[in-house]
Design a protein that fits this description.
The protein is mostly helical. Helices cover 66% and strands 3% of the residues.
């Protein structure tokens, strides 16, 4: 079998099993089907299946032992910073409480990252932030993709912070934004104000004002968290977006 095809099939099997675990088809403590059953289900070799299980084991989803089978581990042991797991989790129904937890993590991280960016960001990183803001402005007029521009802005700030641990969280931030913006995206008439709120963060960073950069980012994220809470309280169609409507790829 071609190496690329082999790898692709392994990834597909791992993704299928991982998502099934994440959405609860195989709850904690459950045993996955046997290799023979999985081979029949996926039309894959035992080698592919074993490699896929190794991938899930590395992510903390399962524990595979001889003569006992592959058992799903408690969610507390999953690597929730893994972009694959985050994407699989977002296929759950009633996912807004999870997104609210993401929002709390962002509130703990991004204001501090903005403050550090005001101190550490290099000219090239400031330029990336400006480019993202420009594309957000274009999106108000129906030009650039607003979601991509928004994500690029926040990721550029993590990069500009100069903190390698903040930078490593870019996948989690991207996944959170790709879903939550479908709930928190303002009406068309308010989009310009939203862009300017982001621009105020940029201006504070560019001015080297750590305190103001942190404050502006906290205000921005707090507003988004309030909108998420309102959507959850309404429990309406906006709060219960079907996973098939989310439409984002697993980040690499």
């Amino acid at each position: 079998m071609d190496v690329q095809i082999h790898s692709s099939l392994t990834d597909r099997v791992a993704a299928s099993l991982g998502q099934a675990i994440a959405v609860g088809e195989y709850p904690p403590g459950a045993t996955l089907p046997t290799e023979t059953e999985l081979a029949e289900l996926f039309g894959a070799s035992r080698t592919v299946l074993r490699e896929a299980v190794k991938m899930l084991t590395a992510k903390g989803l399962v524990d595979a032992r001889p003569r006992r089978g592959t058992v799903v581990k408690p969610e507390t042991e999953w690597n929730l910073a893994d972009p694959d797991i985050l994407s699989w989790l977002l296929h759950r129904r009633g996912v807004l409480p999870l997104i609210q937890e993401f929002a709390e993590v962002r509130l703990a991280i991004e204001p501090a990252a903005a403050a550090l960016a005001a101190q550490n960001a290099k000219p090239a990183e400031i330029a990336e932030m400006k480019d993202a803001i420009d594309r957000m402005r274009e999106s108000v007029l129906g030009g650039a993709d607003p979601l991509v521009a928004d994500i690029d802005f926040h990721v550029a700030i993590l990069k500009g912070s100069g903190n390698r641990f903040f930078w490593s969280l870019r996948f989690m931030i991207s996944v959170a934004l790709r879903f939550s913006i479908r709930v928190t995206d303002p009406p068309q008439k308010d989009k310009h104000g939203n862009v300017e709120d982001h621009n105020q963060v940029l201006e504070a960073i560019e001015a080297g004002d750590k305190a103001l950069a942190e404050t502006r980012m906290r205000e921005l994220l707090t507003e988004a968290k309030v909108l998420l809470s309102e959507a959850q309280n309404r429990n309406d169609a906006a709060a219960e977006i079907a996973p098939s409507d989310v439409g984002f790829p697993v980040p690499k």
